[in-house]
Amino acid sequence: MQSHQPVFNDLLGQPEALDLIETAVRHREEGVFHSWLITGPPGSGRSNLAIAFAAALQCKAGGCGTCQSCVLAQAGTHPDITVLSTEKVQITIAEIRDLVASSVMGASMGGYRVMIIEDADRMTQTASNVLLKALEEPPAGTIWILCAPSEVDMLPTIRSRVRRVGLKVPAVEDVANLLVQRNGIEPKLAMQVAAESQSHVGMALRLATSAEARTRRKETLKAATQIKTVTDAVRACDRWMELAQKDADALTKERDGEEKAALMAALGLGENDPVPPSLRTELKRLDEAQKSRAKRSLRDGLDRILVDLLALYRDVLTVQLAAGSALVNQDLELDILAVASETKPEQTIAKLEAIELARVRIERNVRDVMALDCLAVSLQVRKD
Ligand SMILES: [Zn+2]
Known about the structure:
Zinc Finger, Delta Prime, domain 3, alpha/beta, 5-stranded parallel sheet, binds zinc ion, 15 helices
């Protein structure tokens, strides 16, 4: 197996994608292709790869992970790497215009100017057209990296101007191995959380290292299996909102602290040292990045609950159809068997559809508590 630069350490099970990107980085002296599109399902590491790619381009050693440039890039505060992530449904023309305007400024640290658009599929048509012009005539040294779930989410005119890097969902075993080797997680637990997170590396690690996160997840799913009446449904819905909020708080607080410590260290400061005025912009930038992430994390928390519920009802269906494949939620086997025997496969399929619908509604409007309420009601366990 070819070894990769340290900034790519967290991206596993993606040998083709990494080879493509590392080859581009190794040959950057001869010119780097100016527009890239990274596609892959949620949790496959699209945004992480975009950041790692940007970090590798900027680093003299091609992504050592420890120099100041790499640390700034990974903390989200590199002055020449701009990331557009949005908590809104659409990326507007104004946002893209700003981005294009800043893309023509030269790099302040002597490397490249890297512009990353995290959810490029959310650009409006007019925003896409503005971006298209920028991709047609990019100034030297500016690299665009777009991320989207799939190629078809992008306008054909944009597709024809980008080099595509496709990511796959890594295998459960690969995720488990990474956790064992990199984080020293006990192998049995590593397999359990890799399966429960459905190969989402970040989520798997959180489950592995936080007994509270594991308990919250289990409680969420158990609540669903016990909905017998409308009152139960309302209660389950309230509980989910509360759990999503707790999960979001825990996640942001932890990461905010880690990032700040990493940035302080990169700037040569101890954790509680006063920050000299010349370095305050760096910290302010981090602070802003963290605030915008906090807004997004509640919606992400709710979506995670729904993704977990999808896995739960797929397990129920596996039992009902005697499909024989391993259950994702093995520690809820008894609850799954109970729901499977009390309901019919058609009902389970309807539940899976209801969960998908709730995901779409919450994606559009995070305050859409009704979406969860309706969902909880349609998850009732009832014979008919
Ligand atoms: Zn470096």
